[in-house]
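Ticket #4471: structure export looks truncated?
Reporter: QA, pipeline team
Priority: medium

Steps to reproduce: submit the single chain below to the structure queue and open the exported record.
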Amino acid sequence: MRKMKPIAVFGTGSDVGKSIVGAAICKALAHRGVHVAPFKAQNMSNNSGITPEGLEMGRAQIVQAEAAGIAPHVDMNPVLLKPTGEMGCQVVLNGKAFENSSAVEYHARKDIYFKEACQAFDRLQERYEMVVMEGAGSCAEVNLMPSDIVNFRMAEYAGADVVLVADIHRGGVFGQLVGTLECLPQKYRDMVKGFIINRFRGDITLFKGGCDWIEEKTGKKVLGVLPWYHHFRIDAEDSVELEQCPAVSKLVEGVPAIAVIKLKHISNFTDFHALADTPGIQVVFVEQPQDLSKFKAVILPGSKNTRSDINWLRQSGWADRLTAYEDAGGYILGICGGFQILGEYVEDPQGLEDHPGTTPALNLLCVGTILKAPKTTTLSQFSWGDAQGEGYEIHMGQTTRLAGDPLFDVTSRNRHFCADQEGAVSKKGNVAGTYMHGMFDYDAIKFKWLASIGLNIDPGNVPDGLSRKEDIYEQLRAHFETHVAMDDIYVNYPCP
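Actual output as written to the record:
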């Protein structure tokens, strides 16, 4: 197998488009016949997924693996930090929950995690022709550089060339690029191969003078200017995406709407992409308590700190709004943490989320949850009557149905046959909960749920969420290669 020098995609800041550029490069290389894999040493996100082995990793590298046409593996994201509050996080190491850690405690163990990341990278490089690396946040945080395990320290270990991504939509793109280089020691500046300017609006030809100035000022090439796109959607990792969702005030009158409560510790918000892309309905995220009667259904999504979010729902007034909505016959669905929130209580004897204790939940479903290890991480196949689906489960809690009926029949977990019942449905039938992330990616499940809330929508010829993905990645590749000098990024030379 030929071995080629890795490419590292770094950013001038957070949410500048590193993950999308990394996915585009993976897809473009795979299109050229390169056996390529993504890699990010350390991820910080509550938007994660499950590998075929039943291990947990960041959503961005799962997307990049899909774009590369390969199965995701935890070597692609050996360290995952899942924030549980302002100062702490759960550390997922090589796909398994490792410890709950404060920021200070985590930084004290950075050398251990860097060693694990290097070993994961080495294993990937052994199995693939080329590795496309992704950095985190800004690659020029001078106070964090000595303990960095994901940006230049990792790229230096890998012997990678660096592509620096900047976001022109934010403004100040010249300062972003020049300032980032100025903050770097010379050895790191020399690793930067060139720049990609992301999220451009307007006539690109008018920016040629800007590109010329950047190249003259820095001595580095502008590899491409990527226009803003709206004709396809890639799963995002950062919750910044939620800030760009349509507001309730923008709802189109006469079109059925579904609300997703934007919890303080929301996780796995990409569960709702396939639902939002369904013609004939609208999906909005709502944060401020309000009258819910205008919505056909309300969804409580996943949460990384269920007990804290229960308290927030009560203190903010959301709990009363949800109870009134249910009393009036409104349909409510809870997924993962949202499922736990709808129950009678969440017991935390070990203090996994906060101090040990029990938090009364919303009491809209007859279930009770105990938070305890080990963490459940499974790829699961399930059925709902005659509708078949596949999803993934990521949760620390064990939930017991105290009354009522199950929602799904689970037929396998991590490729092992089982005959389990999962989830719960209230006696009235208008409240349901499940641990199954990704349930809306399967049209049979999605349209059956829509019918259960009174929306009999014709699916037409629109492909389901899973079959759309390959088309979307191909659209991303075409968009990327139209505007970026891929031949300058991909140079068929051996790894040193």
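Status: closed, not a bug. The export was complete when the record was re-opened. Leaving a note from the reviewer for reference: DSSP finds 15 helices and 26 strands in the chain.
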